[in-house]
Design goal:
This protein has 868 residues and is α+β, with helices and mostly antiparallel strands. It contains 25 helices and 36 strands. The chain folds into five domains: 169 residues, Rossmann fold; 194 residues, Valyl/Leucyl/Isoleucyl-tRNA synthetase, editing domain (Isoleucyl-tRNA Synthetase, domain 2, Alpha-Beta Complex); 56 residues, no CATH class; 136 residues, Isoleucyl-tRNA Synthetase, Domain 1, CATH 1.10.730.10; 61 residues, Ubiquitin-like (UB roll) (Roll), CATH 3.10.20.590. The longest helix is centred in the last third of the chain and has 19 residues. The protein binds ligand ANZ. One of its GO terms (molecular function) is aminoacyl-tRNA deacylase activity.
Length: 868
């Protein structure tokens, strides 16, 4: 006994849309005089498990925006090389279709198709030609068990995120992309984007621009003479140079071996080996205790001429700055901690403005007035200057005396662009067998197709699995005809997703990555909806490629995504837990908290046994027992994953779509609730019954008359236009939930009307259509239309009807005020009485009664006297 026959209408309209290509986006026939709107969802990572209800949220948002703007849709799905079978793609596609997405399926793209990755490889060649793709020996996270290099994010506490295998740092030949060449532009152009401030800030921190100086320190012989070796340090605080009481080099510092005394060499070796097993993250964690080893050598502080010890310590990273620092314990907390531990002097050289130096027992990292910093022998006196002035002065002195120079640094590293995996786009270069020279393929040799390989497990040696495809690997250089070997590293999974938004504009172009006219029309993406987990890498990589494409004239805008919205995640249904002691008695959560007993058992309580009491949840049958209520991220292991297929089977796709938009503000995290979806489902059922009528036992519907020629009353127009105004405003502000509430209020009001003029009902159906498109199409055709409502403009509010001139009129029955009704000031007695009869509260008194007398004072009161 279903509230409305969604299982019939949903497949029916999905077929209709597909057959009629309702959502086709113009292609060669785009009318460039028409405004465009390009909304995109970050394509999800389809695993074999298919979608869960959190995945389509971003898509729903987009569809609401799109149908609202009445623009064409661009297909936003894509698939990933990580997919191992086409079956996954099919499953994914059919799930999307069963949700009734208004996609132009002609634009489906798949990053694993050669037609697509041809252009990914083409971009690589352009990068290579411009010196933006290069090879280097770099220390990488090597996981011997998995036989592959891992990205920093894939390493947690020194072991692989998947499987927990040990990971070590080791230098390997890698392909790198020079994203650092774009650091300044990536930073500056953030200012013009409508992105969440938090995401911009994360990108700024990731790029991490810092201004400072490189200073040179001479290494000293054991008898104090200057040697030919120099250590260059990077510092953001040249003003503290007189306070540098030791130097630190990173364990992977290239010159380290020439800095170690014989006596210390064994210690240093062991230390370096130990450090190679830690990740950068672990090494730089502030809370971790600092460790290090003295190298046995000294360097000369160029400012005061003192000999200071050189240490090796892993809190200094080889990959940042110069891999060496001047340590100033008085003014850097890491150095302070280290100096205390190893008994190194602390020299105070910056006085805080409140002169509170030395008493705090910790470093003073702030800026202030310089003290203890003068050496007339080298012509440097910065005493009394502010930190800022002193820094400038020191840099000027260093540049003149040859002791250093100004330097801007970035945290941003070049992008490690190679993976030892089989799945991935082949890198389009060969290595000449005789000379070892790397030669890029010719553009007309693209796509370089990934060879079929039955066994693509890692080789375990660091040789990528592709090296097993011997007949593919052995080749000749097309230009010179010399024997050559193909590159067997593949591109990382990021590559294909870096530019897919461009391909949607022109998905089948075989001559170009994207046609210029189409790109100029569609670009940039107006709204990009996606999870905050992509705040840094994906968005940064895509911006980098986009800027390169801009520089070579492929795209016309500097930035790919004008606006980014992070949708909140959908958590699983709230789980209620109670505690039970050994005797089987339930214990209130607050008691369990303090009793801190370990032999309490936690048991799950089904929702129907729970009720709300104030801010907490308690057992219905025993409200003294307070429960723990928590929602968790959906995960297989918790068993709280809600599968959209099941929801659709039970409530229909429209309910799922409407519900996800109704759950709460787009950007917040939300909790899945079955009773919530039931509420939305009931609303759709009521909408259906209002317009179509109630179901009869023979499966037909008791027709309800929608009055074709009926003129709407002023009250009806007001109700409608207020609803339109609210829905529109909330869509524009992406607060879909409150817009939906307005539609629910409209429906309540409409149920009180006698007559339902068609014009009013039609407008309402259009309002509903972005959220519940199947039902809306069906109602639309029942209202007598033969064409899809997809091409109808969204209703517009008429401001004339938005002003409120209704008043609250008290209603007395037999001399007692029993309630109120909302009426127009000018409302007639008949209308007022009619409203009172339909009012939920008042009708209880009036139903079935005969009225003796009515006294009506317009704007003041309605008095009804009943026969007794
Ligand atoms: C002396 C000094 C004195 C420093 C002082 C700080 C405070 P950002 O802003 O992150 O660029 N540093 C330089 N290279 C490093 C590396 N490879 N690993 C770890 N730390 C490194 O910070 C730059 C500061 O971090 C530099 O300035 C250096 O310590 C340290 F009162 O030099 B400073």
């Amino acid at each position: 006994n279903r509230a409305y026959p969604f299982h019939e209408i949903e497949p029916k309209w999905q077929r209709y849309w597909e057959q009629n290509r309702t959502f086709r986006t113009p292609d060669d026939d785009i009318d460039t005089s028409k405004p465009k709107y390009y909304v995109l969802d970050m394509f999800p990572y389809p695993s074999g498990a298919g979608l869960h209800v959190g995945h389509p949220l971003g898509f729903f948002v987009i569809l609401v925006l799109l149908s609202f703007l009445c623009c064409c849709c661009v297909l936003q799905t894509g698939t990933h090389p990580k997919l191992t079978t086409a079956r996954n793609i099919d499953r994914f596609r059919s799930q999307l279709k069963s949700l009734g997405f208004s996609y132009d399926w002609d634009r489906e793209i798949s990053t694993i198709e050669p037609d697509y990755y041809k252009w990914t490889q083409w971009i690589f060649l352009q990068l290579y030609k411009r010196g933006l793709a290069y090879q280097a020996e770099v220390p990488v996270n090597w996981c011997p068990a998995l036989g592959t290099v891992l990205a920093n994010e894939e390493v947690v506490d020194g072991v692989s995120e998947r499987g927990g295998h040990p990971v070590i740092r080791k230098p390997m030949r890698q392909w790198m992309l020079k994203i650092t060449a774009y650091a300044d532009r990536l930073l500056e152009d953030l200012d013009g984007l409508d992105w969440p401030e938090s995401v911009k800030e994360m990108q700024r921190n990731w790029i991490g621009r810092s201004e400072g100086a490189e200073m040179e320190f001479c290494v000293l012989d054991s008898d104090g003479k200057e040697r030919d070796v120099k250590i260059i340090v990077y510092t953001t605080r040249p003003d503290t140079i007189f306070g540098a009481t030791y130097l630190v080099v990173a364990p992977e510092y290239p010159l380290l071996s020439s800095l170690v005394s014989t006596a210390q060499s064994k210690h240093v070796e062991d230390y370096v080996e130990l450090a190679s097993r830690k990740s950068d993250l672990e090494r730089t964690e502030l809370q971790k205790e600092k460790t290090g080893v003295f190298t046995g050598c000294y360097a000369k502080n160029p400012a005061n001429g003192e000999a200071i010890p050189i240490w090796v310590a892993d809190y200094v990273l080889g990959s940042y700055g110069t891999g060496a620092i001047m340590a100033v314990p008085a003014h850097d907390s890491r150095d302070y901690e280290f100096a205390l531990k190893y008994d190194i002097p602390v020299n105070w050289v910056v006085m805080p403005n409140d002169k509170s130096i030395n008493e705090s027992g910790k470093a003073f990292p702030g800026e202030g007035v310089i003290i203890n910093s003068s050496n007339l022998f080298v012509g440097l006196d910065i005493n009394g200057l502010s930190s800022k002035e002193a820094a400038l002065e020191v840099i000027e002195w260093a540049e003149k005396s040859g002791n250093g120079k100004r330097k801007v640094n970035y945290k941003l590293r070049d992008w490690l662009f190679a993976r030892q995996r089989y799945w991935g786009e082949p890198i389009p270069v060969v290595i000449l067998d005789d000379s070892g020279e790397t030669v890029p393929l010719n553009e007309n040799e693209l796509p370089l197709i990934l060879p079929e390989l039955d066994n693509f497990s890692p080789t375990g040696t660091g040789e990528p699995p592709l090296s097993k495809a011997v007949s593919w690997v052995k080749t000749t250089d097309s230009l010179s005809g010399r024997p050559a070997t193909r590159e067997t590293n593949t591109m990382p999974q990021w590559a294909g997703s870096c530019w897919y938004y461009l391909r949607f504009m022109d998905p089948t172009n075989s001559k170009e990555l994207v046609d210029k006219t189409k790109e100029r029309y569609w670009g940039p993406v107006d709204v990009y909806v996606g999870g905050a987990e992509h705040a840094v890498l994906h968005l940064l990589y895509a911006r980098f490629w986009h800027k390169v494409l801009y520089d070579i004239g492929v795209v016309s805008t500097k930035e790919p995504f004008q606006c980014v919205i992070n949708q909140g995640i959908i958590l699983g249904e709230v789980q209620y837990m109670a505690y039970r002691d050994q005797d089987g008695n339930l214990i209130s959560a607050d008691v369990a908290d303090i009793s801190n007993e370990h032999n309490l058992e936690k048991i799950q309580i089904p929702e129907e046994k729970v009720m709300k009491s104030g801010d907490s949840f308690v057992l219905k049958e025993n409200p003294d027992i307070r429960l723990v209520a928590r929602a968790y991220k959906m995960s297989k292991s918790r068993g709280n994953v809600v599968n959209p297929d099941d929801v659709i089977a039970e409530y229909g796709a429209d309910s799922l779509r409407l519900y996800e938009m109704f759950m709460g503000p787009l950007r917040d995290s939300k909790t899945w609730s079955t009773s919530g979806i039931e509420g939305v489902y009931r609303f759709l059922g009521r909408t259906w019954r209002l317009i179509v009528g109630s179901p009869l036992s023979d499966g037909t519907f008791k027709e309800r008359t929608i009055s074709v020629d009926e003129e709407p009353t002023i009250d009806q127009l007001r109700t409608l236009h207020k609803c339109i105004a609210k829905v529109t405003e909330e869509i524009e502000g992406t607060r879909f939930n409150t817009g939906i509430s307005a539609m629910m209020e409209f429906l309540n009001a409409a149920y009180k009307w006698d007559k339902h003029p068609r014009s009013i009902i039609e407008a309402f159906v259009l309002l509903l259509s972005p959220y519940a498109p199947h039902m809306a199409e069906d109602l639309w055709s029942r209202l007598g239309h033969t064409k899809s409502l997809a091409y109808e403009p969204f209703p517009e509010e008429n401001p004339a009807y938005l002003k409120d001139s209704t008043i609250v009129l008290p209603v007395q029955i037999n001399g007692k005020t029993r309630g109120t009704i909302q009426v127009e000031e000018t409302c007639s007695e008949e209308e007022a009485f009619g409203l009172a009869c339909r009012d939920e509260k008042l009708s209880k008194y009036l139903d079935g009664q005969s009225v003796r007398k009515r006294i009506y004072v317009p704007g003041k009161i309605l008095n009804v006297v009943l026969d007794r």
